[in-house]
User: Fold these one by one.
Assistant:
Number 1:
Amino acid sequence: FGKDRACHFFIFSWFSDQHQLSHQLQKKAMHLSSYSLTTMSALFAALTTRSVGAFTAASVARTAGPALTTTTVRHMSNGPMPYDDDKMPFYALGTNLALQVGGQGNFKTLLEDDELEIVLEAFCENLRGTNTQDARTVLTTYGPTLNKILGERTEGIVERVKKDGAEFIENFLDCNEEAVKTDSGLVYYPMKEGDGKQPTITSTVEVHYHGTLTDGTVFDSSVDRGQTISFPLGGVIKGWQEGLALMKEGGKATLVVPSDLAYGDAGSGDVIPPGATLKFEVELFKVS
């Protein structure tokens, strides 16, 4: 969609990654004898990918690249930086590692506070070389148990999110008589009927949209940015493909999209949780 639209990854990340991520969730084999344990950061980054198999060969290979990657900057405070400019690059390195490991998401939901303290202790000891146990022995002995724990906790969280989404959909239908639920599970609520062209899967559409989670959190909004966006309808999530095909130019509708028509058990980035149901207000301006 061009450089100026790179930030719109929430909607325009294609759903095909879901099959690969789902497959990765089932990979539990522990082939640690072939691992290169040169950096613990690679292993910790592997731990918090969406694959529950924390220490598989594939997950380590994915995260053994350059340590510094582009991350989303979050402005938490307008106060002074904790160090002077000479030392802040190293603070930035720590920040980057924390974000890769999941400081904004997975650990907060998967681990208790005391468990997180143990994780940080192991990380620091191995990074400094003060660990008293061989890293390979620790991972070989306890890696399978860790995978089992993370798998069970992840599954439980996803199921709770899906249940909340199903309840949201039922409440939405109860409160909006004109809303309809299609065979796929999509909820379509017309807010303004259009009278122009109706898109198909091969169409390019120009829209405004406002996307929220079921708790009202806004994760992406062209309305807030004040700029419409055009894209091929065949390249977006299934809920959008079906929902926009029910609209006509000039129309506006609310789409409530269950997770299997959105980002599934993988979620998207730090903002759309795994298993999340999404709500969009969409206005269709042009079909070509």
Number 2:
Amino acid sequence: LKSSDLWGHPSPLPSSHPRSSPWPPAPSHGEHGSRIWRRGGSPSSGIMGGEVPGISDAVTSAMVNHFAREISKGSLSLWPQFVGTARRYFNVTHGYVLRKAAWQLMPLSSAKKKSCDGELGGEKEWTARIFEGLEADIEEPDLYIPTMSFVTYVLLFGLVKGLQEQFHPDVLSSTVTFALVTLVVEATVVKAVLFTSGAVNTPTVDLVALLAYKYLYLSLAMILGLLIGHGHRPTGVIYTLLSLGLNVACGVALWQALRRLA
């Protein structure tokens, strides 16, 4: 049907002449109005409604690309330093781990000469820890043993709670959080003490690694408690003497390493 058949008179044809008024026509509530809302965000945007989104998108894209380049440039510049530091502290062998663990239990002054004598390419023992062709001292800290000891401590703590029928999923997360916070607080206090005593250039990573060795002794103490107490709280003279020996060894090893580090 035509509009003239419905209303009884022919519909007016659109005028081909421009409007005499300089102002744009008022937006209608139909399809034209919805098109203005989609382009400019509001009916008042009018003629400029189709141009503003293009400019804003270009500016936003340029800003995002700029920040992405800056972030990638900074992360890539820090990545070689991180890899070099991790390689230094995690470059260990099975022989070194056994020797280091034995030294932690009996921290005596080592009179052993280095196998390479400070020369590159020299023949080295299987218990030596090598970094950049040179053998590291036994007192020098690493991060492999502290990391493995930390994981072992958390798992053993969960095992003890399970044997006591007190285990729940939050035990592991709370244990990890408490252990990490304790380590950070200890490292901060020791760093401040060393700084006030004149040891300004003490490496923070070495300090954290030395303090994290305590989880090795805690893991050994928990293993002894499980063996002696059979899943219950260990008691007796033997466990007390062994625990005292572990505490003394931990203190002496930490003292010798800090004395060398400072």
Number 3:
Amino acid sequence: MDLGFGNTNQSVGNAAATTLLRATAAQEAAISSEISKYDALLESNDTELEKLRERRLAQMKAARQQKTKWLENGHGSYTDLASGQQMDVARAFFDAAKVSNRMVVHFHRPSTRQCDVFHAALEKLAPKHPETRFVKINVEGCDDVREGGSGVGAKYLVEKLGIVVMPTLLIVKDRKASHQLRGFDELGGKDDFTVNELAYVLGGHEALTRRDEEDVEPSFLGGGGGGERGIEGVNSLRMMFGGNGRGVRRGGYDDF
């Protein structure tokens, strides 16, 4: 096939033509497959259609049950683990990790303005992502509950998890602290990121399941972000909940 590139560039033209033909063939195959699915539905008898309907209803029921369970466990809203009460926030943290496969934990201080940026974004993300629990822990004055912090439990978590920057978002997956977003370093180093951009970065660490509008790579990532880059967590502490001699032991927080 002479594509008008001349003798010197004929091989390049042939390669381009081959690539174009392959892409066209792939598109045609995908369309043909989709049409075949519709044809199969039209040719199905009442029994097959009823089975398909039953499977779909079962899937919808399972999805509703899962969402109900998430909501019962505190998902769907951005909440304070200490709930403004004099309670053991470390125990609340570990209890939450037992029942929620994915959590985003915001370690914050009221006196740090940057924390307000995450507060506003997480308030919006929580109801959009019921698959993940979003919580916050106030660490201000954590050495002394009289100073407004969350007491010895917060101090324990800060020390054990290596929380050194305010604000920090800790990602917990399957009872494992898998990654920390320290400040805004992974968000372009600025506080003007959008909620969708934060969702993209969190989704890259598998902290949530991205929605369509969130699955657009932010410009500040410069050509490769999220899970596609295989981001490694800075923290791989395994949170154990039994007396097996491993995992967290200081302070007795493994005894539940």
